[in-house]
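Listing S7. Sequence submitted for prediction.
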Amino acid sequence: MSVPRAPATLEEPERERWRQINSEVQFNSSELATLQMGLEALGEHRRCLELVAKEGLIIKSEGGLTRKHPATEVAKNARATWIAVVRALKLVTEEEPAKVGRPPGGRKRREKPYWASRG
């Protein structure tokens, strides 16, 4: 199986991931376009994290107020895009989601409410 050439829009870390994924899975043309979009988002996420590491998580605005770095929001959106692509292409097998709520075999119910037993 030949690995398709990585798109020019991807940087080297994402090109390496392209080669790794395509060596394991064979995609049609629309799936390759989806993978490219996801890897571009992953690269954007990586660059945003590098910028935040360099400039700090908190920045001062022109008015002197402190706020979170705008790149954190871009990184969050890019990560969400990558996760959506991974799920759409079924690159990870999903385990059964954990059940929400109390575990089974909890507290036993009374036959009558506590106030009904009062005299």
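Caption to Listing S7: primary sequence and predicted structure tokens for the chain studied. Residues 29-55 form the longest helix (27 residues). Residues 1-92 form one domain.
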